[in-house]
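Re: your question from the hallway

Yes, I did run it. Sequences:
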Amino acid sequence: MPELPEVQTVVSQLKKRLWGAQIVKFTIYDKQKINLPRQIKHRTIADIVRCAKYVVIVLSAPNKKDVYLAIHLRMTGQLLISRDHKAACLNKSRVDFYTERGILQFCDVRRFGTISYAKINSFARSELEPLEKGFTVERLHALLIASRCNLKSFLLNQNKLVGVGNIYAAEILHRAQLSPKKLCLTLSKKQIIVLQQSIQRVLKEAIKNRGTTISDYRDTDKSRGKFQNRLRVYGREGKACARCSSIIKRIKQGGRSTYYCPDCQYK
DNA sequence: CTCGGAGCCTGTCTGC
DNA sequence: TGCAGACAGGCTCCGA
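Structure:
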């Protein structure tokens, strides 16, 4: 599920609802895969930020250094805020964090998601954030010429540019009219400019629409995103391209589905 | 360095 | 209706 726009939506909501709240207690249900230290109890949520696709919760305590909880939602992870114990019982949760403002629940059917504890914010890695100032045409150009892979693999590689996943990679390339099979090395300066703009525009538009709900993604209120209504290629195999009316194709790249229009993404 | 495949998990959908 | 197999938004590890 969640790529940058979904994680950003969740982070914004969490910040609005839980900023300054104290963790009164927490209960781990999935003890097989999740382990958290007792020290996080009685700490205050001093901040909630997004680092790549991680939700990072900053926990403070008087006269102590901050500690960090980093949550990665992977495929089916959800962070829900429930008003009380009764409401929380309706959700199958892996961890519940009780605060005076509600219960933060980490739900995750496939259990691929992770939640980890650290004394430093090691999750704010140095890779390029597509919506920050540092994401310039020049930086993107430098990364592209150093890559021997195709554009789809490049966009999915979180060691280069963070936040883009399978859905948005497809949408970004369609918007930029670039083939997912095209080698990064072969982009012209003009195409790099278009790609850089497409990445930012698609991600910003998706954030405005509160993300994409295909099946599992929900925000903290269990509401669905809206960007699925604006998808131009993802999940639209066999349908007409909105730009040129050709039939949208699906191929496999690195074991994952890639949707694209063979006519207007030929370059 | 890059690629493809397997693995981590469970639920849902498809076709026989 | 039942069942096997394919597939799903992410990421990491392995061998090639």
